[in-house]
Amino acid sequence: MFFSAYEGMKPRLAAFNGGKEHCLHPAFSASCGEVAACLVRVPTQVVTQRMQVGQYATFWEAVPKIFAESGISTFFIGYWTTVAREIPFSFIQFPLYEGLKRMLAFTQGHETTPTQGALCGSFSGAIAGVATCPLDVVKTRMMLGRKTKEGELYSGLGTLRGLRTIVAEDGAGALFAGVVPRFGWITIGGFVFFGAYEKAQDLLWKSGAWGAKPKFML
Known about the structure:
Layout: H1 2-16, H2 25-52, H3 59-70, H4 79-108, H5 114-131, H6 133-144, H7 159-170, H8 179-207
Helix pairs in contact: 1-2, 2-3, 2-4, 4-5, 4-6, 5-8, 6-7
């Protein structure tokens, strides 16, 4: 869903700009991709995170009990907070990813390989992950539905209010709780994520499924 929206939006944005690419096109395209992907990602994370903290023992126990709280909307608790986190993440990650690829390609005089693209994506994802860690903390607390200490309901807070609440209760440092493992898994995951994306593109171009591949331009 993400890459369908991402790849679908890039040529449309270029068409609006007279056929010329702009450095912000990847950012806006990725934002559209995140909005689409979160329709699947958020319900999955709601179930996963509640199981991880021991609220439910099994998937089959979690789904009906979460549904019983407020119906299908319970699975989308934190949707807009997640989108609010993912869009800044994408605005940092994808322009940086595309920019690093262009810079590397210009330096070496030919297109980047899938491995080089994976490294560019891994690095850009790590930077974006650290920068958006506070938004991730708010999103996670909302999805869990409970405050970490008092055990009171935490859902219903907006992103900005959630940030203020966490700072007031636990200090500014709490906004970067888990930043080291977040940096680690996004760095590793980004390499796999972009590596698969780059390799898939390479195979599709070679197969002719996407037509003739555009020539690399210095």
